[in-house]
Amino acid sequence: MDFPRFFGFGGSNRPDDVWEERPKRLPGFNLMFVAAVFAAAVVLFCATNSFYTVPLGSQALLFRFGRYLGTEEQGLHFKAPWTEVVKFDVQEIRRFEFGERTETPGQSYFQDENEQKMVTSDSKILLISWVAQWRISDPYQYFVVNNVESANNYRLISGLAEADFRKEVASMKYEDILTTGKVALSANAKTRITNTYKQLGVGIAIVDVLISEVKVPPSVQASYNDVETAKQAKTSAINEAEAYANKTIEEAKGRAQVAMNNAEAYKVNKIADATAVSSRLESLNEMYIMNPELVRTNLWYENIEDVLKRLNIVFVDGETGSNIFLGEVPISAGKQ
C-alpha cells in the first residue's frame, strides 16, 4: 500500500509517471483533524466553564447575556458555559469612614473638619469622627438593583448613613455626648441607619457604629477647659462636704446610741431597785400585821445604823471631863 498516496500527501515519483496539472484541494485528512481538534476544544471549554465553586461565606449571582438568573449559595454548582458568575463575600466587614479617612492603614489618616462638625440639640458644635462597619446582606439588591459599587451610588448610600448619624447627634445634648452618651449615640445611630437601609432595600447590613473621636472645636477649647476645671473643683468640694457630713452624722449616731444604752441601763437598774423595794415593803407589811412592835424596832435600828455609819462618834466622860473615847457605837448589840 502506498501510504503517502493513501493519506493524500502525494505518490512515489516513478520514471514513467506523466505529470498532469491537477486542481489543488485540501486533503481530506486535514479537514477531519481540524474538525476533531475544534470539537475537542469546544468540549474542553464547556467542561471547564460549566462548573464553578462558591466559597464559604459567599454568594454568587448568575447572569446570561446581562440578564439576572438567580443567586447560588456556597458549594460546587453546574452552569451553562455562557453563563456569567459574579461572587460576593457576604461575611467581609467593610467600612464607611466619616471625619477621618484612612490613607495608609496604620500609618496616615486624612481629617476633614467640615465633615466632623455636627450640631447637638442645644445648638453647640462638636467635632466627631466615626465609622460604620457593614457587610453585604443581599447581593442582588446590592449589585443589581442599586449597584452600590459604582462611585455615585456608593457616595449616595454612605451619605444616607451620615445623614442618619447627624440626626442622632442633633437629638442629644452637648454634655451627654462628651461624657457618658457615646455608647447610646452609637447604638441609636446603628438602629437608625439599619432601618433606613431596610426600608430602601439597599442590600447592606450595619454591623456596628464606632465613634473614634469626639472633641470640641479649637476655637472654644480653652473655654471648655476652664469650664471642666470649674466642674471638677465643684465636684471635689461637694464630695468633701458629703464626706464631712457623713462622718459627723455617724459620730452623732454613735453618741446617741451610747446615750440610749446608758438610759436603758439606768431604767433597768431603777426598775430593779423599785421592784426590790416593793417586794421588801410587801414582806414588811405581812410581818407588821403579825408583830407591829418588832417591825418598828427593827426599822428604827436599821435606819439609825445607817446614819451612825456616816458620823464620827466622840464620847466624853461627864464626871471627869478628861476621858474621851472615839469609836463606833455597837449598834448591833441593841438589836432584838
Structural class of the secondary elements?
A: alpha+beta
The helix-strand sequence is HHEEEEEEEEHEEHHHHEHHEE
- Low-pLDDT stretches are 1-12, 331-336
Tally of structural domains: 4
Question: Quick check: average pLDDT?
Answer: 80
What is the C-level CATH assignment of the largest domain? Alpha Beta
Radius of gyration: 57 Å
**Tell me, what's the shape?**
elongated
**With helices defined by DSSP (H or I, 4 residues minimum), what is the helix count?**
9
> CATH fold name of the largest domain, please?
Tetrahydropterin Synthase, Chain A
Strand content: 15-25%
Number of strands: 13
Name of the CATH superfamily of the largest domain: Band 7 domain
Task: Give the termini distance in whole angstroms.
Answer: 178 Å
CATH architecture of the largest domain: 2-Layer Sandwich
Largest sheet: 4 strands, antiparallel
**Fraction of helical residues:** 40-55%
Task: Please provide a brief summary of the model.
This protein has 336 residues and is α+β, with helices and mostly antiparallel strands. The chain is 50% helix and 22% strand. The strands form five sheets. Strands 6, 9, 10 and 11 form a four-stranded antiparallel β-sheet that branches. Strands 3-2-5 form a three-stranded antiparallel β-sheet, with helices on one face.
Describe the protein:
The protein is an alpha+beta fold. It folds into four domains: 36-87, no CATH class; 94-216, Band 7 domain (Tetrahydropterin Synthase, Chain A, 2-Layer Sandwich); 219-290; 297-334, no CATH class. It is 50% helix and 22% strand. The chain contains nine helices and 13 strands. The strands form five sheets. Strands 6, 9, 10 and 11 form a four-stranded antiparallel sheet that branches. Strand 7 (100-104) and strand 8 form a beta hairpin. The longest helix is centred in the C-terminal third of the chain and has 70 residues, at 221-290. The termini are far apart.
